[in-house]
Amino acid sequence: MSVRRWIMPTCQEMTRLLSDAMDRSLPFHLRIRMQVHLAMCTLCQRYRRQLKLIREMLRHQGNQLNTAWDLHEPSLSPEAKQRLQRALG
Amino acid sequence: MTDNPLSDPQGWVDSHGDLLYRFALVRVCDRDIAEELVQDTLLAALQAKERFAGQSSERTWMVGILKHKMIDYFRRTTREPIQSSDQSGEDTRDDGVFVADGHWKPGPTAPSGWPDHPDSLLERKQFWAALTICLEKLPPRTAQVFTLREVDEVEADDICRMVGLTPSNLWVILHRARKQLRQCLDSRYFGQAQGPGMAKS
Fold it and tell me: What is the pTM for the complete model shown?
């Protein structure tokens, strides 16, 4: 492996590292390599931001317990509501 | 019955149905299964209504029942064999989004500029609608571990114990789920020419 390859992971390797960094704490040398790559790569910066946006949205929406503020999507279909109403007797 | 603080069960579907459904759907990523879980929950609530202590709100109580129903569902599916589409292993497929040297292939499959944050209600609605559609495309067990991690913030070690995976298998599955979801959102929502007209960063 060339010195450049060692210092700079490829974008393909970066997608895996960026995901892993969301689930565990990566060793110091990997964090440095990621930062070096990110500093130079707009596409991987976007990739990271987008994974975080997906996470934020899921955490927020998935834990909405009131109807005042949420997005009212998705909803039970009218047919599904009828089925449930029948099941409840 | 006068001291029972619960509302009339006839109104439960209208007052709680959608919320319970959304709560289940974002976790199981399957409309039919989510509907079934809502039905199981409402029926269980009906049977247990004499025991409702009134210490929490009716809704919180029902969400608690739903959580138990979902745990039962996850236990059942964990016993089923992992589908080939869920198989873990090294990530060799890159779906043609990278060129030979491992960098992003220029063109529509490279990450396009999304707005930093969907702020307006319309943007949030569109993003959320696309995200729920994309979630349903994940293989079932992938969706299950992904939502445990992303929606419920369960730590990776705990997920491994719950579903019987090694950490390295779990990391690969989560990586694939994120990659697939991001790609789906990119083409379905933020893709060129069909975007909602938000300012691109």
Answer: 0.84
